[in-house]
Amino acid sequence: MPSKLSYYYEMYHNLNLLNSTAKAWNYLKYRSMQRKAVMSLKRYTPQIACLCVTMRCNLKCGYCAAAKILQKEKDKWRESEATLPKVRQIFTNPLFSNCLLVDLQGGEPLLVNDFDRIVSYLAKRGHIINTSTNGLLLADRITDLKRAGISRINVSLYDANRPVIERDLAKINQIFPVHMSFVLLRSQVEKEQEELIKIARFIHDAGCRSLRFWLYRPMGIDPQPKEIISDNLPSYIEFRRRMEEVLPNFCLWPVTIQTGKVKKLCPQLWQRVTCDISGNMVICCGIDKTLEGPCSNLFDSESEKLINHPTLVKMREQLLDPLSDPPEACKTCNLLGESGW
Predict the structure, then answer these.
(1) Which among 231, 219, 220 has a CA at the least distance from the CA of 186?
(2) Are 59 and 267 in contact (CB under 8 A)?
(3) Digit-coded pLDDT (tens) for 301-326
(4) Which of 42, 174, 278, 281 is least buried, going by the fewest C-beta atoms within 10 A?
(5) The domain that contains 119 carries what CATH number?
(6) For residue 258, what are the domain limits?
């Protein structure tokens, strides 16, 4: 099975060593220092910068938070669209400037006009750059993205984009091999295992680096808690066994929702910092909500106060306290048991 070691190697291979020394040192400090509820930026700053570069998408998936946001703010997408000057402004902030990994998210990032220039700017700064895309525009953009210095591309597979992916994926991988991901629903592992194995074979044979399964989280326009996969679901255990027999060392498996004694390992509130182009700070990758009140926007708040917003400090306290229940938002997130990198 692909390990974190192989993931680290891929990241190292894509580092611009000349410009990455401070970022690598920041990462080592994070790994060696104890986590505290109140963060001091003199110790270390976040490792992963997540930037929502657009609210627009050329698909509309029920479990996507971007679709939910756009539905509420359908006339505001233009002011939330990334441009190179806006990205430059964000990366002057100490919360973002020393992140080792930059994750460019959406919406659909390839709809952004400045996207190639943004990737090139971040690569020259010494960041590892990952993006997730639905792949509908990727065949026409892959050469330019490779030239710009993209480190890693993840293509998310859905029913809506499957015909285009089946047509283009092998051609894309000849230029720049991508990773694929697929969101697993409980109903699928209970009733559609043969179809899932067929999809995985296609992804493997098309030349992808890996297939990562994400577990469904009840977010987006139409949350479906019944589709959550727990660690004791027999059909999921059997599906995972079958996949490893068919395609050994190809699939990346997430931790599942815990049903026994809960281990609170998630590092996201220390490791990751997320905002949109307007500077609105998102609580974490598993919650489609932004911080509220004072010290909740990157452009009008002191960095130390922003990273120690009362909501974040309270959640960190709950994660660190062995006698406390997890934060309410974490109880349906499988990343609660994931130790990060």
Answers:
(1) 231
(2) no
(3) 999 999 999 999 999 999 999 999 99
(4) 42
(5) 3.20.20.70
(6) 4-337
